[in-house]
Amino acid sequence: MNKVYKIGIIKGDGIGAEIVDEAINVLDAVSSKFGFDLEYSEMLLGGAAIDETGVPLPPETIAGVKKVDAVLFGAIGGPKWDNLERHLRPETGLLGLRKEMGTFANLRPALVYDELINASTLKQEVVKGVDIMVVRELTGGIYFGEPREYSKDRAYNTMVYTREEIKRIAKVAFDIAIKRDKRVCSVDKANVLEVSQLWREVVEEVAKDYPEVELTHMYVDNAAMQLIREPKQFDVIVTGNIFGDILSDAASMLSGSIGLLPSASVGSKVGLFEPIHGSAPDIAGQGIANPIATISSAAMMLKYALNEVEAADAIDNAIKKVLADGYRTGDIGAYDAKEIVSCSEMGSIIANYISKA
Ligand code: IPM
Ligand code: MN
What we know:
By secondary structure, the chain is α/β, with parallel strands linked by helices. It has two domains: 1-106 and 257-357, Isopropylmalate Dehydrogenase (3-Layer(aba) Sandwich); 131-253, Rossmann fold (3-Layer(aba) Sandwich). The protein has helices at residues 16-34, 47-53, 59-65, 90-101, 124-127, 163-178, 194-207, 220-229, 241-252, 292-305, 309-324, 343-356; strands at residues 3-12, 36-42, 70-75, 105-111, 131-137, 149-150, 155-156, 183-188, 214-219, 236-239, 262-266, 271-275, 327-328, 339-340. Strands 2-1-3-12-11-4-5-10-8-9 form a ten-stranded mixed beta sheet, with helices on both faces. α1 crosses α11, α1 (16-34) runs parallel beside α12 (343-356) and α6 (163-178) crosses α7. The two termini are 24 Å apart. The structure holds 3-isopropylmalic acid and manganese (II) ion. 3-isopropylmalic acid binds at residues 91, 94-95, 245, 276.
């Protein structure tokens, strides 16, 4: 009998439904090819949850994600919900979900597809061969630190990290580096912030257990500049929540479109897999979104959560092949396109390549 995995599906808002539907399309193709079954259960989050239940993270979703093997998520947010109080905003739902799930390590690869080398705004020689893994701490730092307060004339947040939180994210980064080029660059602002001083000390300590991995440190402002100046100097970047948020957006443009890059949030029993881009309300419902980041997130799910590595590789290869064959969604349509396709066409072509391979 086939293995059965339970997958939580959260489509979310904006382009969320379109891109997740294509990822499911592709998952169905790999599961029948590689002989396992996926059982999906849909859950609400963000604006869709607010509309239906009044809150961005309903209790059913919190209970639901604990009963599955992995969660695949699209994107949340949109102008419709922008004026709500902070605790009712879609984003608060996503942050709450990450915290509830305990997914403290967010892996964000920034990889340049040779097939799309022209899509980057940077020169070819700068980006060709870039393969970076940003390891972003996801459930701590200034996003969650207390105290925090907003009032009309004064507002603040707190950037806090404990030794334990730093240690566990550093370990994830070193464990990943061992399987890659064995270089970790830890990014902080230790020249200004006490929280970064501790970050640096703890990362140094963890490094002692990984003598084969080279550790360097970089201030975040310099790291932003170096990512654009000479991205190939990086292998694994490990950093805190907000620095990782910013640097991963910057790193994504090395590839030419934020619509291409996936992410995996791991560290606890159930992982959360999502594209790094947002819900793009401006193009929602038009069928022109790029589903590749979400399809690629589904591949990360197969690899990291379900250990179906061959199936994950099949997806990655199919993505490379569609790009090599010149199929492009609008966001990357100006670069070596043979045919501009819709979101659903892109999903179907990738699924077909997998079934036929
Ligand atoms: C991301 C997003 C989120 C974040 C927002 C939507 C809360 O920008 O996943 O990078 O800041 O983490
Ligand atoms: Mn972000």
